[in-house]
Design goal:
heterodimer, A: mainly alpha, 3 helical TM bundles of succinate and fumarate reductases, 5 helices, B: alpha+beta, Ubiquitin-like (UB roll), Fumarate Reductase Iron-sulfur Protein, Chain B, domain 2, 2 domains, five-stranded mixed sheet, two-stranded antiparallel ribbon, 9 helices, elongated
Chain lengths: 108, 255
Amino acid sequence: MKIHYGTAIAAVALVAVHVLMRLTQGFAESLEYESVLANYKFVPYAIMLELILVLLSIHGFNGLRVILLELKQGRIYEKAVSYGCLAAMIGLIAYGSRTIIVVNMGLV
Amino acid sequence: MAQVTSIAEEQTSTPLSSSKSITLRISRYNPKHDDSSIFMEFTVPYQKWTTVLEAILDVKKHFDHSVAVRYSCRQATCGSCGMMINGKPRLACFTKISELNSNVITVEPMSNFPIIRDLAVKFERMFDSHHKIKPYLIRDDTELESDAKEFLQSPKEVEQYIQFANCIKCGLCNSACPTMATDSSFVGPQALAQAYRYVADSRDKGKDSRLKMIDEPHGIWRCHFAGSCSQVCPKGVDPAMGIQLLRGYLLGFRS
């Protein structure tokens, strides 16, 4: 559970930086296609976005796992929930990371 | 041979006459025979000092011998007579009818405990959890071997845990806990408060093993800090605070 608290605190700090950086541009402007690509190509910012993705995925899926474990108990059920949440978390991180990688490899 | 057709009238020195009376609704349920519980109503006279337990015993004495209730000391010391009284977990011997400000009093078995019959519930799960956290001082030496003959503590050291030593294992906190209702493997506020009681005791050397026991998937982290356990404790113990302080040990804020 310490990882739950740790990821929450780290995510709050990094999301705050992310929001502040978005505020430097106009909201509509920051969501323009070229602007988004430029953000992904700026490596320090891309690393921060990747970190936010990892932190929130761990925090969110661990939270979901905890809620599901409280709803019902049983060895098989608990294993299925834990591994299911782990697989979903890895899947989401992989899908999110793919976007950054694809942009930086110049595939879009 | 005379056939017994009704319950024998019991001779009693305590008359049923009183100027005031309440309706006592008692939950009746025998898991061996019944599909669901039903309520039976009794009109019971009471005085200013009459407790709910005395009213239930009045019912047993004068109306229905078969009402199942667990009790012993009648003075909030043994922790036997916990039950839901008007929807709140309380000790029946520690709850005066006049304090409830109601003409109808509903008594049910404690929530989050399996029912044996009527108002009596099984305490196995709570006692198992209590036993699991090793509710005793763990040391390599003993007072008998020590030169000092006793393990001295300063008043400040005693203050750290003394309120938690008042626990009478009545189970009201576990009954009030919302997590206990959904998580059948949760350790529960009673055992966690007792874990804190020994972890915070300066004489105890078993802190690490106790913290390891409660730092598990259905352990201390399942508490959502609803605080209902502390509200219902008849002895003034604050299990919710104990749980937060225990978390302090696990997160490294306390040593």
